[in-house]
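Section 3.1: Structural characterization of target chains.
Under the original work plan, the team committed to producing a structural model for every single-chain target entering the pipeline before any wet-lab resources were allocated. The record below documents one such target. The sequence was received from the expression subgroup and is listed exactly as submitted; it comprises 130 residues.
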Amino acid sequence: MAARTSKATRKGGMPDSWKDKSRVSALANLLADHAAGKRELSSTQIKSIEIILSKTVPNLSSIEQRTIDERDAIPENQIVSTLTSLVAASPNVIETLLRIIIQTDPGAIERVKLSQGQVEPDAAVGPILQ
């Protein structure tokens, strides 16, 4: 009985992408063995492997993020509207929001009061934080 062969084998061997992955894996294994002390490589060999890998395997610094988060496009007025309805529905949520604001940006409350002309600098934050 004849041995079965895959279409890739009958048409001339493995696809190029498989060959590339195999080569990259072999080079990575060489570097891993060198790092583990199982194999000695000269600095020229290491540099050559590094160059080949840099041309075949994407570097994390060169990968571009293509995912767009829908929340990044929410207009400020919609956020304010949502917060307003949350506070109206549950008044105690404002205390939680104030704690979050004070923890993340302690000067925010003072800046808001100053922009509205309500208090002098340094007088605004003291009572709120107590």
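Residues 16-35 form the longest helix (20 residues).
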